[in-house]
Amino acid sequence: MSIRLSNTLSGKVEEFAPMAPPEVRMYSCGPTVYDYGHIGNFRTFVAIDILRRFLKQSRYKLHHVMNITDVDDRIIERAAKQGVGVRQYTEKFEKAFLEDMESLHCEHPARGYPKAALFAFCVTLVAYNVLAVLKATLRVVHGTQKVQKEMSLHHLTTEIRETHRGMMIALRPPQWLLFRGMSAKELAAALRELARGVDLAKYKKAPTKPKKPKTARQSGANRPHVSTAKLLAERRKR
Questions:
Q1: Using H for helix, E for strand and C for coil, what is the string for 115-145?
Q2: CA–CA separation, 24 vs 20, rounded Å?
Q3: Which terminal CB of the chain, N or C, has fewer other CB atoms within 10 Å?
Q4: How far apart are CA 144 and CA 117, in angstroms?
Q5: Measuring CA to CA, which residue among 39, 100, 42, 97 is closest to residue 68?
Q6: What pLDDT score was predicted for residue 223?
């Protein structure tokens, strides 16, 4: 039995087709644990559970992850008001969420519930490593001095950000899979070939301008500087 899902990338309702059958990788957004969950929250989680069960029943090898958002402005503000740490504040709401999922007989994701703070750090680390590999490839092809002195990292990352959505629409997921099966040597050769087509003039650094004079300090004997850490510490004492 097939299933049709709304594709937010293309904006269309399409028949579901996994990138690498029989494997399916599924990510779903979990709760933000600043308070107890309500019926509206769990409507979403039950819908996710139904989709998860359908995919398993369809004999797909499912890799499912649901994150728990354990840090945001509301959590930080409420934890500060109670005079406790963020982790201590969120623990009871996370525990309550898991108990409610059990009560509704929802299956737990096989890959668990990664915390958003840790997940964001990992994504940032991966992105940084991808960028490092890209820069290293450009240095090999165009020369270290040229890349270091003339190429603007800001212009390069802007180009990637602005063209990514169009690339994901124009190039269907199966076309990206060939990179997954490459050895390190084959991938390096492919990257060098792609780097030869990069015109570094498009990403040239702007000429360095003379530094502006330092702004006169506003704080002093009459207007002493107060750090944010001190303000938060005083708030906790109230």
A1: EHHHHHHHHHHHHHHHHHHHHHHHHHHHCHH
A2: 7
A3: N
A4: 35
A5: 97
A6: 64
CA distance 167 to 219: 50
Note whether 68 and 31 are within 8 A (CB): yes
This prediction has a pTM of 0.61
pLDDT mean for each 10 residues of the chain (238 residues): 86 90 92 95 96 94 92 92 93 95 92 84 90 93 92 88 79 79 92 92 84 70 70 78
> Could you list the residue range(s) of the whole structural domain that residue 176 is in?
118-203
Residue with tokens 């963020």: 86
- Our count of domains for the chain comes to 2
In whole angstroms, what is the distance from residue 25 CA to residue 180 CA?
A: 15
Question: With the CA atoms of 169, 29, 59 and 53 taken in that order, what torsion angle do they form, in degrees rounded to the nearest 10?
Answer: -140
Q: How far apart are CA 34 and CA 89, in angstroms?
A: 8
In a domain, 101, yes or no: yes
**Alpha-carbon gap, residue 139 to 128, rounded angstroms:** 16
Buried b (16+ CB within 10 A) or exposed e, 68-90: bbbbeeebeeebbeeeeebeebb
88 and 127: one domain? Answer: no
Q: What was the pLDDT predicted at 217?
A: 64
Same domain? 108 vs 122: no
pLDDT of residue 100: 96
